[in-house]
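In this supplementary section we document a worked example of the pipeline. Step one takes a protein sequence of length 262 as its only input; no multiple sequence alignment statistics are reported here. Step two produces a three-dimensional model, which step three serialises into structure tokens for compact storage. The input and output of this example are shown verbatim.
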Amino acid sequence: MAQTQPTPPEHDVEGAKTSASEKTLLVLEAALRHSRFTDVVEATGLAKATTHRVLATLVDRGFIVVTSDGLYQPGPQILSLAGQALQRLDISAIAQPFVGELVDRVHCTAHVGVANGDEIVYLVRMDSDKPYQMPSRVGHAIPMHSSGIGKVVLAARGDEEIQRFVARSGLLRRTERTITQLSDLQAELARVRERGYAFDLEENVPGIVCVAAPVYDHTGTVTYGVSISTLAVECSPEQLEAHAPAVVETAGLISTALGHTP
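The serialised model returned by step three reads:
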């Protein structure tokens, strides 16, 4: 009597053994990103039979639903869990370790801010080892048009929305360097989009400069930004721009932690 050969362990695309729990996660992630069964199979690297079996379980549990066309979509269970997770999201706690690493790298005060109406409100402030402190505080609100974080938020908006913002805010002058004309703001925001970061060159507070980068949430929306600030007498525009890659990198890490996929 012939002996039944044991079923060989299934391997993923890298050739490593894949556990049952890993298979489930692979299929769930693939089904949330792809609607066609063949695409789900290709994304997981698993056998069709295995993928179909796991999908059936996910459908039974409400994590995935199947449309009348046979396409896979997120189910009520995954949507409910996602909503609960978003309600518990604390960007301040998420951003803190990344901001701390940024401060250690550039030795400047770092901030994370969020758009609140037509202003930016600081959620995180972390000081450097410099013998002075910036005149900012958590909860403090600053105008969008004269701040680095405000500019990266505005740069993600369309022209009509920017025009409405200007009509509401009036582009009040904060210093001699503040942008106070719509055409000048539009030109500045075009430069921000091209560079991927924004400057505040003594536009909000005399003697203080900053560079900021946008933070994207899980929907790809820019509501937050991260910046570093320092004294203009200590940091030339060229030196400030040299810090921009570190700020952009930090913003990207926070965006990823918030669920953004470039």
